[in-house]
Design brief:
Layout: H1 7-12, E1 15-17, H2 18-28, E2 33-36, H3 43-51, E3 55-58, H4 62-76, E4 80-84, H5 88-103, E5 107-113, H6 116-120, H7 131-135, E6 141-144, H8 151-163, E7 169-175, H9 176-180, E8 182-184, H10 185-191, H11 206-217, E9 222-226, H12 228-232, H13 236-246, E10 250-252, H14 272-278, E11 281-285, E12 306-311, E13 325-328, H15 331-344, H16 351-373, H17 381-393, E14 399-403, H18 406-414, E15 423-424, H19 435-446, E16 450-455, H20 456-462, H21 465-471, E17 476-482, H22 512-517, E18 521-525, H23 528-541, E19 545-550, H24 578-588
Helix pairs in contact: 2-3, 2-8, 4-5, 4-19, 11-15, 13-15, 17-18, 17-23
Length: 593
């Protein structure tokens, strides 16, 4: 890999180099934070970025750096930026690049790489890899820059690609010799520019708006589904006007919670199953008919349901089923047009439909409220999360990062969100290893308190980032719900080797000691009252804090809400007590709708 001349020498000779031009290009476009893990050949990118006013946040793993940057992209609508070294570091950074692209979040990955001639001839360079071609399947767009003069252009193109249409991840390949190239400072300054309107509005035709609203007007039982695309679009006021003017019930995908506050009277979340099964016309606002919505088919939906789908990506229409009224455009412009149409052609859903949902919701809420407020010890997910809910209900501006199985599913159901873009979780891909980096990105971007809620298994994917939280003194309170295993801690080893079950973890672990090891404050909670007290203290302190919550090893369901994705072994192949033990665990963990 080429060795670049020092930037200081270049500047002293009235020259500048690729390091400085890259940093100046980012600053010209107001990209003033960078997450990363540095090393050859990009160490001086981070050093110079920090010297020139970019806040550099060094994480402990490249995947975490990418996820932190992606969280910033979701919250702000501007691309988050992360930096990796070549080859292995680059490959670690591909996972969050793909995650951001699947989620529709803008992010730019900068990665050092080997000189092109060494890669093309396969000469065996240090950490040599044809990174550009590896990146292409994982990114919305990918570029390599070979001349220092082209760095401002590649940054501009990356910003536009990341933000326009459906947002996504963009890769920029930075060979070491490109970073080391020099150019006259005045020439470099003349090449810098700020991208003009990187995400232009895309308006659907008036006839499309009319067709969609006429279909809505025909509905006897309409439903509005709000997706994280609507949250990202920052069209909160427009969505509220649309929902309230129609009088229709609405449901929100997990990261769309808070676009309208969860205590809004039209929120049907407590009666989701019945609402979906009976709705005859559904308006999808930035929500996709993927696995999370059962592809718009099957027993979860009315067999005669018709969909109005609003999406900025035309290839999303008819992705999994026929769409009766496709509306291709950006959410903010489209919902504004919906509202204009309804102002001239008022439509109001039959109030009996919403009243029936509200009555059913009240019954369901009463049924489960006792579980959330119980003082049962050892705790379960319900009363531990119910204790956290008391803190978040008193602090609406707290951001929530969340990952796990039951820790994720139950948190979505129990903890209400009141403000948009304040909840970040596993998203479209359903991955783990995102909780702490999302928390870091949210805290660094906003300066506001974050509660990062994890199952004990999920915490293991990114737990070392506790050190990053402490090093940068971020206002993050980490909560680990420890039930001693993946899903639960009471699974048995079906063999005879004496090892723990494949799903078993340490039920007696004191995870809070990890926070203490790096200078933060740790708490160990065994009761809901302690959980509430310690989480409230952590949030109020604005300092790195962790609360380890001791749950019953019997608390939890296998696979949470996605048991149907977990195939069962053929029973005739099970021997000894295998069949009985598996049946017991699956019965305890079955999906209840």
């Amino acid at each position: 890999m080429s060795t670049a001349p020092t930037a200081t020498t270049a500047e002293n000779a009235n020259l500048t180099d690729g390091f400085h031009v890259l940093v100046q290009s980012l600053l010209k476009n107001h990209l003033d934070r960078m997450y990363g893990v540095i090393g050859i050949p990009v160490t001086d990118v981070a050093r110079i970025a920090q010297a020139k006013g970019i806040r550099y946040i060094g994480l402990r793993h490249e995947s975490d750096a990418g996820n932190a940057a992606a969280a910033e992209g979701f919250i702000t609508g501007k691309p988050g930026v992360y930096l990796t070294v070549s080859a292995p570091g680059f490959m670690n950074g591909l996972i969050p690049l793909k995650e951001a692209t699947e989620n529709g979040w803008p992010v730019i990955m900068l990665s050092g790489s080997s000189s092109r001639e060494l890669i093309d001839l396969g000469e065996g360079d240090y950490e040599g890899l044809d990174q550009l071609n590896y990146a292409k399947p994982f990114a919305k767009a990918a570029y390599r820059v070979d001349k220092v003069e082209d760095i401002p252009l590649v940054v501009a193109r990356a910003i536009r690609a990341a933000c326009s249409g459906r947002p996504g991840g963009v890769y920029i390949d930075l060979p070491g010799d490109t970073l080391g190239q020099t150019v006259a400072q005045d020439v470099a300054e003349s090449l810098l520019y700020e991208v003009n309107d990187p995400a232009p509005a895309q308006l659907p035709a008036p006839s499309v708006i009319e067709s969609a609203m006429e279909l809505l007007a025909s509905a006897k039982k309409p439903l509005i589904y709000i997706g994280k695309g609507a949250a990202y679009a920052q069209c909160d006021d427009e969505v509220r006007q649309f929902v309230e003017s129609t009088g229709a019930p609405y449901l929100a995908m997990s990261m769309a919670k808070g676009v309208l506050p969860d205590d809004h009277p039209q929120n049907a979340a407590s009666d989701r199953g019945m609402t979906m099964r009976e709705a005859d016309v559904v308006v999808l606002l930035g929500a996709r008919l993927n696995w999370m919505l059962n592809f718009g088919k099957g027993k979860h939906w009315n067999e005669n349901v018709k969909f109005i789908q609003v999406d900025i990506d035309p290839t999303e229409i008819d992705n999994s089923r026929y769409i009766a009224a496709p509306v291709v455009g950006d959410l903010k412009s489209t919902v504004e047009l919906f509202n204009d149409y309804l102002a001239a052609h008022p439509y109001k859903a039959d109030p009996a439909w919403l009243e029936a949902i509200q009555a059913d919701s009240a019954k369901n809420n009463a049924r489960f409220s006792g579980a959330e407020t119980a003082d049962t010890v050892p705790m379960n997910h319900y009363n531990a999360l119910g204790a956290i809910k008391k803190v978040t209900d008193a602090n609406h501006d707290v951001y929530i990062a969340n990952e796990g199985a039951n820790a994720l599913d139950d948190c979505r159901d129990i903890i209400d969100m009141y403000l948009p873009r304040h909840r970040l979780d596993c998203g479209t891909w359903g991955v783990m290893g995102v909780g702490l980096p999302y928390a870091i990105g949210a805290a660094a971007t906003t300066g506001r308190p974050v509660i990062s809620i994890h199952g004990d298994s999920a915490f293991g994917f990114d737990g070392m980032e506790v050190e990053t939280i402490c090093r940068y003194n971020l206002p993050v309170t980490v909560v680990v719900l420890n039930n001693g295993g993946i899903y639960r801690g009471d699974f048995k080893n079906l063999g005879t080797d004496g090892d723990p079950s494949p799903l078993t973890l340490s039920a007696c672990a004191h995870y809070e000691k990890l926070m203490e090891a790096f200078g933060g404050t740790g708490y160990y909670a065994t009761t809901p009252a302690e959980v509430e007290k310690y989480v409230a203290e952590g949030v109020a302190s604005g300092k790195p804090t962790m609360v380890c919550c001791e749950l019953s090893i019997h608390a939890g369901k296998e696979s949470g809400h996605i048991t149907y994705l977990n195939p069962q072994p053929v029973t005739g192949l099970l021997v000894g007590n295998e069949q009985e033990d598996l049946a017991e665990h699956r019965e305890n963990g079955k999906l209840v709708d």
